[in-house]
## 1
Amino acid sequence: MTKTEAHGRINKLKELIEQHRYQYHVFDRQTLSDAALDSLKHELYQWEQQYPEFVTADSPTQRVGGQPLKEFSKVRHEKRMLSMEDVFTRDEFEDWHTRISKLTQRSFHFFCMPKVDGLAVSLVYENGLLKTASTRGDGDVGEDVTQNIRTISSIPLRIKEEKGRVEVRGEICFPVKEFEVFNKKLVRDGEKPFANPRNAAAGSIRQLDPKVTALRKLSFVAWELVSDLGQKDMEEAWQMLKTMGFRTVPESKALTSLQAAEDHWHALQKKRDALEFWVDGMVVRVSERLVYESLGVIGKTPRGLVAWKFPAEEATAIVKEVEWFVGRTGALTPVAVFEPTWIGGTMVQHATLHNMDEIERLDVRVGDTVILFKAGDIIPKVKEVLKDLRPLHTKYVQAPVQCPVCGSDVVKHEGEVARYCKNKRCFAQDRESVLHAARAFEIEGLGPQIVAALLEQHLVHRAPDLFTLVPEDLLALEGFAEVASQKLVAEIQSKKEIPLSRFIVALGMRHVGEQTALDLAVHFGTLAKLQQATLEDLQSVSNIGEVVARSIEEYLGKSYHQELIADYLRHGVLVIPAKTLQEPGRLVGKTFVLTGTLSFLSREEAKEHIRTLGGSVSSSVSEKTDYVVAGEEPGSKFKKAKELGVSILSEQAFLAMIHA
Ligand SMILES: [Zn+2]
């Protein structure tokens, strides 16, 4: 971005953030998620760091809180109530540490406390009595909420410090459990529930009638002793606050190293759902009072503390490009590409846009700022486009007419949204098919790059070829030494036994996911029976409708696929039959021999399973033995089975066979 463009961007960000903050602080109305707003604020902050000449007094990074409501009388803070700078990554946290370390020659500790999310208030006591309680307001002037605050039992009305003026700051919060009860009641009464405990706390304190506030079970936790009562550091301040009768922010501690602070951050993040209050990060503060104060203030944030936020499930990013990904079925999926963005604890730079309909629905264009969200998946999705931030020149997303990988024509079938590459031998499709099979066989260490290289070197054409690889083949690939080659080949060979349901997944039939594969396995029991199934048979499988049945029939009917299955078997893949519902005695006529120590079952249990399913157990291996189940440290029976060519099952494979 040029300087002029950055200036324009800064102005747009300021306007949008301000608009949402106004709605939020003045009307308690949340129009954008906290995470998305934080993300925008963070971007603005970074631009302002790069171009300090564009920092203006009205920038959202320069203000705290919001305008006080007219109904409350005003309180001027003796000492400004500042806000905090957010950091999102360990790198940013380290940068902060480096910055302040350069500014002070003195050593200091970190005081780490959960960032309890509620409404910040300042309590002023005179000669031991609570005189005023006020909100942060714009940092200089807040609202007088003394009457409402008095209804909160965790706030002492009198403190032991009898002389002079004492100021304590902290957070009014709604305990999560109380919040849930309260919100349910609102819904029952036909009222609108609050978005989160912070909103509810803020809304409750700013009630004009203290009686309403009194009914809500709010708490107060102190996080700062503002007055100088001789405390040297935060630990001493904590002790004094407790002596005065305040509850301090729980789970707080003084730590010495960056690593210890990071560990505490992780620990808090892990148990955040179990904490009494809603916590969205950890505040790290220079513990020693004199060092903290000497660091001073930059803009409207103190240099001596920082809020290290927990990973948010939402973030904002600018779409740089839209690329088309070719899947194993040849379907083209649009993927938005953006600068590396931190979301849900991982760095991502792609988000799926699904298809052209979705692109049109979102009206997303290249150059747009979007809100990304993660909903349990690894790949984030685009939630909405922030049209207020749309630049003058955006580029519409065009559906490709040619496959971006092989250049073949792209087709769109009647009644379907997706577009497909016409070329059945498209490199991208081959690569994705092999990758898909490798995942179904649970082969570790076979990523997209290696698969692409195997295809390019003609070592593998289709997935079954993976099982023919020998270490020498892999040596031809870049970066493959002898040990790595042997390791990967051994890994592939160790995954040759596969339960029927996983094998069906590996085939990659259209419309057949894991659940359908399981249904098919349970219904047909063996691969041979599935291969012989008619359309009618397929339609009689529970949960399988006509479209899916047709897709399976079509797949199995093609010679290309029949050869593929034959290749798997020829290359030594052993498909373990599934336990069918129709045939409880499906091991009838099969003879088993057990050897070695089993870890999940006792021998007796294993024998019982075999007999229940109609099989028999023998104590010695002969030509008549169908399977030898080999546990840990198998004995001579294992050797004999090998000599006679009897099928040998690992305990895992045996378990899959009886439980499938
Ligand atoms: Zn193609």
Note: The radius of gyration is 33 Å.
## 2
Amino acid sequence: MKHYRNGGSTAARQLACPGWRKLADAMPESPTSSFAEEGTILHFCMENILEDGWEIDELDVITTAGISLKLDDDHREKLTMALEAWDEFCKEHKIVDYKCEITYELDEDTGGTCDIIAWSNDTVWVVDWKFGQGIKVSAPGSAQGMFYLMCAMFEEPELFEGKYLGVAIIQPIPSRDVETLDIWELDDNELDNFKRKYLQANGDNLAAGKHCQFCPAAPTCPQKTGQAQAALIADPEALATLAGNLTAALELKDWIKQVETFCHEQLEAGAQVQGYKLVQKRATRKWSDAEAVELALRKSRKIKLAEFTKSTLLTPPQLEKVFKKKDLDMSVVSDYIEKVSSGTTVATADDPREEITLNANVLRGAIDRLS
Ligand code: SF4
């Protein structure tokens, strides 16, 4: 599948902050997240449920585009809710036909793959599956929806002749009491306005806002840096309302996380970030050979079985407590204790923990990911 420089998922950001693309071009490509991979798999499932009659209850391990996911009950519930909302949508809006995963291109750099283009006798709809649970996405005003309508209208003008336009978002969120289907019927003027503004949204202008979330340029963006500095020097009494502070804080929170993540990724990729280094996270003790520990404890006969087991063997710190209480010598099992860190974290250069150096294989893997 071709990846366009200007696509549907970045249309809102392009409109609000045209300069983001230039900044993002200077950044390394971010590794995909588990949420993005889950979305890819669930989109693939919906395509095959609609096109090839896949049965949701029979879906287990799904593989596509080099990624695999073993579906659980939550995934199957989301797929069932999405399918029910799709059926409801088709019935209510008298859909006569549709196409799945269709790629529309406006020019070499601009285009994308629309989840579904569907039509009735009087309306053409862009339908978008959303499988994220954090942010509820609305259909009214959807830049992504208008982007796909614009590209589809460019490539298949005959499909749109004399038709109204619509955007439908199907977002199943099992844990929240929200509607799965959201629709927006728009008129030609709204699409024309979008098209005009989108095609003029070029240049270096930067403007921060809600669209900064997920922006790959955020860690080095001067707008965000300025926002952060302004927040640091602001006099609380001068701030107009608490609501204003909260909005800024929430936006900054996202940005701070993006900076930390980017810095960690860069250090793991072998880059130098002045004043920072990679260190191991706090190591926790665990048994290197649980069977041998159990045998040693059984042999010692100084501690009863029920005292060193729950349903599983106690961890080293838990067992140490028992030994201390009984005034026993831990040396019978201390050879089996190993310290294993759960990964790396970023610390300031004067942190007392030892700096870790990445071995050649890890570095090579990180460089491969970036190239
Ligand atoms: S972080 Fe926000 S202001 Fe900066 S480039 Fe991205 S969208 Fe624009």
Note: Residues 360-364 have pLDDT under 50 and may be disordered.
## 3
Amino acid sequence: MRAPDPFVPSLFRVDRVWREASDTATLGLVALQGEIPAFLSGQFFMLYAFGIGEIPVSVSGLWDRGPLLHTVRAVGAVSQALCRLRPGETVGVRGPYGSPWPLPEAEGGDLLLIAGGLGLAPIRSALLQALAERGRYGQIALLYGARSPEDLLFGEEIERWRSRPDLQVEVTVDHASPAWRGSVGVVPARIADARFSPERVIACVCGPEVMMRYSASALLRAGVPAARIFLSLERNMKCAFAVCGRCQFGPTFVCRDGPVFPYDRIARLLSIREL
Ligand SMILES: Cc1cc2nc3c(=O)[nH]c(=O)nc-3n(C[C@H](O)[C@H](O)[C@H](O)COP(=O)(O)OP(=O)(O)OC[C@H]3O[C@@H](n4cnc5c(N)ncnc54)[C@H](O)[C@@H]3O)c2cc1C
Ligand code: FES
């Protein structure tokens, strides 16, 4: 019997669509046949908008809770087509792929989650997992920065997170609107306000690369070892399973060895915009 073609996606139906911001939507997907494949927080799937193309998108939810959740920002042809999908329509899905957030390594210590912009999507998945197993961690802190108050994602959920006594939430924006009463400034600057022990924290960072570079530098200055800082890297992808070489740099495949890398392994790749 022939092995299934790894490039052929499974069919999923759009169950729900939530508008998160003017250019960003969360899709809730259900499998037309079989179950949602098991995945871990931090992994990604390839989503195929029929007739247009296929892109990598992180999961923003949990595996064992309801539909498969992906939060997509419309930046080009495929992501725009995904954001235009309506309930009942069909999308192609293959995966999961890549490395997860190192939540098991954080158990017994502190967890610091740092998100910039759309980076909150994969960070949300890690936070939901950690909150579902709250007793396994010491301090948990979420630092989240967006361009403006209008760009903040998961707004109602952030308010619920803020009300939890067992979770520190710090939100900041680059540019405030007149009604904004919160913090203004870049998210790496908020690392000094986070409650964590540098030698027993695992820091997970996702956002624009410049924000991740500054966050990593601030964490190193705060005494966090490079091997305890994890970044999720974005690079163009085609196959997603280390065959086409599209995301390859030397012996490293971002699709297979990442997207989540320890900083001590990835610092050099961060300076290279496209592979
Ligand atoms: C592992 C991984 C996980 C990802 N997770 C998510 C996710 O959860 N949600 C999500 O929306 N996207 C995510 N992305 C990024 C997403 O794959 C790209 O935005 C997508 O490939 C763009 O394809 P397109 O056809 O829509 O646009 P293209 O036609 O490829 O690009 C259109 C324009 O947008 C620019 N562009 C491309 N990518 C980005 C980007 N990431 N940010 C800003 N501008 C960009 C291009 O330079 C170009 O100018 C992830 C990427 C990787 C590698
Ligand atoms: S996307 Fe093909 S090798 Fe990574």
Note: The chain is about 20% helix and 30% strand.
## 4
Amino acid sequence: MWFEKNTKKKMQVKCQWGCPFYMYASNVKRFGPDNMVVKTLNPQHICSPIVTSHFLTYRRVAKEVKERLLVDEDWWSRKGIHKHIKDTYNMDVPMQTITRGKRAAMKMIEGPYIEQYNKLAAYRKELLRSNPRSTVEIMTEMDGLVRRFKMMYIFFQACKEGWMKGCRPLIGLDGCHIKAHHPGQLLTAIGVDANNGIFPIAYAMVERESEETWTWFLEYLQQDVKIERDSSYVFMTDKQKGLDNALKGYYFVLKIFV
Ligand SMILES: [Zn+2]
């Protein structure tokens, strides 16, 4: 449908050529300046139910898809968004509007994410206040004039105590993907408690799993669990993505069985 007339006082709506749908509405003084009254209406359509709509703006598309894109930006392709709008609203929106809408939605999401990175230092402070004697380390590097996030390592005091007092001398190391707007990887160290249950030790958020990031992780971990000479720990790993090389430094000193 389209507006043949669209002013504050009058509104005339028509459908595709050949379709008898017609609506005329105008302002009636006694209902106030913001109200319109439909004077003529022929609601019968004989046109195809799906028509290209230019009324759904890219901003509306952005609003519609923002929440889902927040979970996973790859989750929705442009084609998928197009189909969703067609199924939900019976509107065939031009692909250009979808493209602009998706881009606008990504921008809306990007803002809050960057702000969250800026709050990391405050987050660390709060973690240390509420969990005294924990280890929370943030690594950043300068990229020109911008400080870039590299890694965040967290080992809660409660986990330290629990691990030292009640766990077997076994450390499982593995990494997994973080699927979000700013993807990264999660490095984890887990132990096994006296009931053979999995016990969380430490974890870190990094850009990607590599020898460099595993080396940092192990350095922090070593300080935290006070791995010393002559102590015997078993490390369980998949020996992937640099983890085997990062661990090599510990073989001889610690009599680690791999
Ligand atoms: Zn029609």
Note: The pocket of zinc ion is lined by residues 15-16, 19, 21, 45, 47 (CB under 6 Å).
